[in-house]
Specification:
Blueprint lengths: L1 E10 L11 E6 L4 E3 L13 E6 L10 H21 L6 E9 L3 H8 L5 H7 L11 H5 L8 E5 L2 H10 L6 H4 L11 H12 L7 H21 L6 E7 L9 H7 L5 E8 L5 H6 L2
Parallel strand pairs: 1-8, 4-7, 4-8, 5-6, 5-7
Antiparallel strand pairs: 1-2, 2-3
Helix pairs in contact: 2-3, 5-8, 8-9
């Protein structure tokens, strides 16, 4: 079962003085009701996987109050869940789209303070997103004894697929593929075509979508093989992989995760009753 929430903001206050929007609630799309932010942990049961769809932070976005608040909210949500985990036998783990699973040891060493931030960025092949946006979220597992999980396929493999297709992969690259890798469904592709077109002129949409499907399958595979009993896992991933339950949530179920919940952030000043009813 895939169970969706929307983290909904009514008004955004000045981020320099505040760490929270002045009005916020979480819309439970299944039960059609509002949940207070502070009560969200009560909706996460033992063994649940929460897929947290996000808008990525890029260089220069540090001065964008909306993007900064977006990531502060992620951190607050994880703090809410990890503090609750301390009252249960559960641990809270955080999985990252930005981290590659063949470099899990780097994530482990950073979380254990064996690497500083600069070493972590270099050794993890982190990419261009400022660590500023994600450091707090990735350190949150230390509160409950959880892990920071590297979930994604190495960038060189997905890049090869996006440019040349599976036939461009070397034998060594093929060894790192997940056991199940299939093209996402037609409805998933239809709904994200506009997003794919934004990735630049001349992009082969079919191959890029196949690479996105590879991300989904790899992250789902690694998420489920790291699962441990009643523990909870929060996966931080671009919201394109989350919306409508396509992408990663569907792949998690394919790999055997039966309790999957999703959450994305939205401003809802102009929402109608119909908007709430149809939100997914």
């Amino acid at each position: 079962m895939i169970y969706a929430f929307l983290l909904s903001f009514l008004t955004l206050t000045a981020w320099a003085q505040q760490t929270a929007p002045s009005a916020e609630q979480i819309w439970d799309t299944k039960n059609q009701r509002w949940i207070e932010f502070s009560e969200f942990h009560k909706t996460i049961a033992a063994g649940d996987t929460l897929v947290l769809g996000e808008v990525h932070g890029f260089p220069g976005d540090e001065e964008d109050p909306v993007n900064v608040q977006h990531h502060i909210n992620q951190s607050r949500l994880l703090q809410n869940l990890s503090q609750h985990a301390l009252t249960t036998p559960r641990r809270l783990h955080v999985g990252m789209e930005f981290l590659f699973y063949n470099l899990q040891e780097v994530a482990d060493r950073w979380l254990a303070d064996e690497l500083d931030d600069d070493q972590f960025i270099n050794e993890s092949d982190w990419g261009s997103s400022p660590l500023f946006f994600y450091r707090s979220q990735m350190r949150e597992p230390t509160v409950s004894g959880g892990r920071l999980l590297a979930l994604n396929i190495p960038r060189s493999i997905s890049s090869t697929v996006a440019r040349h297709g599976p036939q461009g992969l070397s034998e060594d690259q093929k060894k790192l593929l997940p056991p199940i890798w299939e093209r996402g469904g037609d409805l998933y592709f239809e709904r994200i075509q506009d997003y794919l077109k934004d990735h630049g002129p001349g992009i082969d949409l079919d191959l890029y979508f196949l690479a996105m499907s590879l991300w989904d399958d790899t992250m789902a595979w690694n998420s489920t093989r790291h699962r441990q009993g009643a523990d909870n896992l929060v996966i931080i991933v671009g919201e394109t992989h989350v919306l409508y339950g396509h992408g990663l949530p569907a792949r998690l179920q394919r790999y055997g995760a039966l309790q999957v919940k999703t959450l994305v952030q939205r401003h809802v000043e102009k929402w109608t009753d119909e908007d709430r009813r149809t939100a997914i």
